[in-house]
Write a structure and sequence with these properties.
The protein is an alpha+beta fold and 204 residues long. The protein has one domain: Glutaredoxin. The protein has helices at 30-39, 77-92, 96-111, 120-125, 130-138, 140-153, 179-186, 196-199; strands at residues 19-25, 52-58, 63-65, 70-72, 164-167, 170-171. The strands form two sheets. It has a four-stranded mixed β-sheet. GO terms for molecular function: oxidoreductase activity, acting on a sulfur group of donors, disulfide as acceptor. InterPro entries: Interferon-induced_GILT.
Length: 204
């Protein structure tokens, strides 16, 4: 399977009305990869993306070894590379459709155990590789993930597992797979997506 492209989206809600949906995750965590590929992608096909400020925070259970000042990732050095590459993609490809498509491709490969083939995603999606690699090589990617580390450390309550999903500062904890229903419930603007009519009843 190749994830060729996400549908073009238009903005139907003002920025202030949109619901903040944040995902804190590890790039090689199987549960995180599955959530991104199988669940979160749905926001692009059900018009939910039009009412969401989607934020991806690739840090998760990583930590900084203070004695060596080095980053240690739960699933090893390859995860540190992907965390940094995905942070770079978010920063360089600011359009959510573009950076999400790239991250989807990376995570799809991770599910298949082919995460080392991440470079192939740029060609399959027609996205520019150079600016993302320049960010990674320059060290800017490391600075970006350290900002994500600080943000993750400030979560209140602290995250206890990943994927950790937060809707308007409300952590969903074990309910994270029902994130769409919580987004619909939190949305106060007009023109809610049709899918919200059936979703909100799931959590009332």
């Amino acid at each position: 399977m190749t994830f060729s492209s996400l549908p073009a989206c238009y903005v139907s809600a003002t920025y202030s009305q949109k619901v903040n949906l944040s995902l804190y995750y590890d790039t090689l965590c199987p549960f995180c990869a599955t959530f991104i590929v199988k669940n979160l992608t749905g926001v692009f096909y059900e018009d939910l993306i039009n009412i969401i400020n989607l934020r991806l925070v690739p840090w998760g259970n990583s930590y900084i070894n203070k004695s060596s000042n080095s980053i240690v990732c739960q699933h090893g050095p390859d995860e540190c590379i992907l965390n940094t590459l995905e942070a770079c993609a978010i920063d360089v490809l600011q359009n959510v459709n573009k950076h999400y498509a790239l991250i989807y491709c990376f995570e799809f490969l991770a599910i298949e155990g082919r995460e080392k083939d991440w470079k192939s995603c740029f060609n399959s999606l027609g996205l520019p590789k150079k600016p993302v690699l320049d960010c990674y090589i320059s060290g800017n990617g490391t600075r970006l993930v350290q900002k994500y580390a600080d943000e993750t450390a400030r979560l209140n309550p602290p995250h206890t597992f990943v994927p950790w999903v937060v809707v308007n500062n409300h952590p969903l904890q074990e309910e994270y797979q029902n994130f769409a229903a919580y987004v619909c419930k939190a949305y106060k603007g007009s023109g809610a997506p049709e899918v919200c009519k059936s979703l909100v009843t799931q959590i009332n």
